Amino acid sequence: MSKIRIGIVGYGNLGRGVEAAIGQNADMELVAVFTRRDPASVAIQSSNVPVYLVDDAPNYKEQIDVMILCGGSAKDLPEQVPHFAQWFNTIDSYDTHANIPVFFDAVDAVAQKSDTVSIISVGWDPGLFSLNRLLGETVLPEANTYTFWGDGLSQGHSDAVRRIEGVKNAVQYTLPIKEAVNRVRNGENPELTTREKHARECFVVLAEGADAATIEKEIKEMPNYFAEYDTMVNFITEAEFKENHQGMPHGGFVIRSGQSGESDKQIMEFSLTLESNPMFTSSVLVAYARAAYKLHAKGDKGAKTVFDIPYGFLSPKSPADLRKELL
Questions:
Q1: What order do you get walking across the sheet with 167-176 strand by strand?
Q2: 29 forms bridges with which residues in the sheet?
Q3: How many CB atoms lie within 10 A of CB 141?
Q4: Structure letter (DSSP) for residue 187
Q5: Beta strands in 115-229 (DSSP E)
C-alpha cells in the first residue's frame, strides 16, 4: 500500500513534533519541509528529507498528499492556509476561537474552488476539547459545560510578559482553581467568573537595573491577560529559569454536569495531562492529516472542522478491524 505523503510548512516546536509523529505512523512518510529561513540553516531529524524555501512549495504539488501548516495563529495561519489550499489538502492548528468562523469561510472559499480539503483548527483546544463539549451537550441537554486549562505553560501570556521593558525572560502558567473544579465535579453546577476558574503564575528574570515592583504592577494590571485573574509574580535567577522552566507542559479538562431522566445526577469528564503541548498537538495534526487524505480520495472538498470528521477516518485500521477490535 502506498504511504500518505506529508509536507510540513514551518519547523519550530510544532514542525519538529509533526516530524516525530509521522515517524510513529507506518502508513505515512515525510516528503519535504518548507521554511522561510535559509534551507541550509535548518537541520531536521530526518536525514533523507529535503528542506526547501516556502515559496517553492507549489512546485511539489504532485508529490504531497497533505500539507501540515505549523505557523502561529496570530499572523501566519490566516494568510498561509488559504494560500496553500490552492494546491494542497491542508491541516492547521488555528486557535483564535472567536475568529474561527471568519477563518473557516476564508479557507473554504479557496478549497472549494481548488477541489482540496482543509481541516482547520486541529489540536486539543480547539480540537479534542471541542468534540467533548459537543458530545456533552448532545448527551446531556440539561447540563452545564465547564472547560478548565492547566496546569500548563501559556505561550501567548509568556510572550506578553517578555515584552515588558525590564524583563529579560519569563514564563506564565495557567492554573485551574481547585475549589472551582471540585464544586463542578461534585455536581453543584456553579456559575463561575473568570477569576474563580483560573489563576496565573509568572516566573520572571529581570534585566539588570529593572525595578521588580514596577514590573509586577504592570503584569498584574495588564488587560485581557492578567487584570481579570489573581496573578502571582515570582522573580528568579536566570540559572533557576534555565533549570526549571524549559518544558512546555499543559493540559486541562472538559466537564459536563447535569441530569438525565427526572433527577439523575450525571457528570461527563475528558482530561489531558501533557508533558509537551506542541508534541501532543502535533500528534493530533498528523491523525487528522490521514482523515483529510481519505476525504479527498472520496471526492470531498472544502474547509472542515473536527465536527465534520468521522472518528474512523483518523485511524489507519480498516472499518472491519475497528468494529472487531474497538467497538
A1: 152-153, 167-176, 198-206, 230-235
A2: 5
A3: 10
A4: T
A5: 117-119, 143-149, 152-153, 167-176, 198-206
The reply to whether the predicted model has a pTM over 0.90 is yes
Distance CA 254, CA 117 (A): 29
Q: For the chain, give the mean pLDDT.
A: 96
- What cell does 35 get? 521554511
- Please write the tens of the pLDDT for every residue from 128-180: 999 999 999 999 999 999 999 999 999 889 989 999 999 999 999 999 999 99
How do strand 230-235 and strand 198-206 relate by DSSP bridges? parallel
Q: What is the pLDDT of residue 263?
A: 82
Contacts of residue 191, defined as CB under 8 A and 6 or more positions apart, other chains included, come to none
CB atoms under 10 Å from CB of 154, counted, come to: 19
The predicted pLDDT at position 261 comes to 86
Length of the chain: 327
What's the grid cell of residue 300? 470531498
Helix, strand or coil, per DSSP, at residue 176:
strand
